[in-house]
Write the structure tokens for this entry.
Amino acid sequence: MKVLYLTLRRTLANEIVRILKPNHQVILLENSWGGLFLLNLTQWQPDFRGEGGGRRGGRGACSSYDDWQMKLLLSNERTQRTSHVITTCQILKPDAVELGFLETILILRQMRELRFCQTDRVDTYLRQIYIALSTYISQSGYGHNSAARFSHLLISLHQLQLPERMVNFYFFGGRVTKIQHLLKLA
């Protein structure tokens, strides 16, 4: 849960999120917390059994039809995929600046999907972020590997976008019901 609280605090401090109305901030977080959580999780050494592993939810017994459906979603293949994606991101080790850029990209993509901003405006912001991230990476001493690092970060970012319900069930045993309640604690 610490990583989730950290994720919420970081997201609320993001300049793009701060310009939104409070109710739009909540809606944005409700719809994007899973990917943002997984992105921040790459900075840690997660236990891929999930917080719910062995107890209700996670890999324990199914207590309802919804749990049973989620258990099917969390087959070994998907668990291995999640583990692989996070491990790949950990190997890339995005630094604090890269992490901020990647979070902003996720946020802008979600804002476009939720139509909180004009599509062309979001696309312009995204292009500016891509250029800034690419420039930062090229100036960070990666040399001829800069383009490869940029590509790997964006591909990993895309792969981290799993359904919030799946992230909730896998890592929290389904205990995260309303982000709005967690925002009061964050």
Summary: Residues 22-41 form the longest helix (20 residues). The chain has one domain: 2-185. Residues 89 and 153 are 7 Å apart (CA to CA). The two ends are 11 Å apart (CA to CA).
